[in-house]
Amino acid sequence: MTKNRKTEEAGFVVCLKNDGYAASLERHKIYRRLHDPEAEKDGDLRVIDESGEDYIYPGDWFVLIDVPKAVEVSLRKTA
After folding, report:
1. Which of 18, 41, 48, 67 sits CB 3.0–4.6 Å from 71 for a disulfide?
2. Which CATH fold topology does 8-78 show?
3. Predicted confidence (pLDDT) per residue in 56-68, tens digit
4. Class of residue 7 by CB neighbours under 10 A (exposed 0-12, middle 13-18, buried 19+)
5. 64 to each of 8, 13, 61, 73, how far by Cα in Å?
6. Could you tell me the residue ranges of all domains in the chain?
């Protein structure tokens, strides 16, 4: 896992799996996803986890979701 703040926000995901990262990811929780073409080429996603930092995790640990605008605004305020 690596960190990089030079990416842009790409939406939201729900965590389905957190093997070995229970302190960093909560199952069934919504997380902000950042666009990272290099990670995505390998099937991974860059996610802002519980630490407030962005890390690369396996893409199959998450499901991409669309949220209503009001929910999106609220999630962005809390992040």
Report:
1. 67
2. SH3 type barrels. (2.30.30)
3. 999 999 999 999 8
4. middle
5. 16, 4, 10, 17
6. 8-78
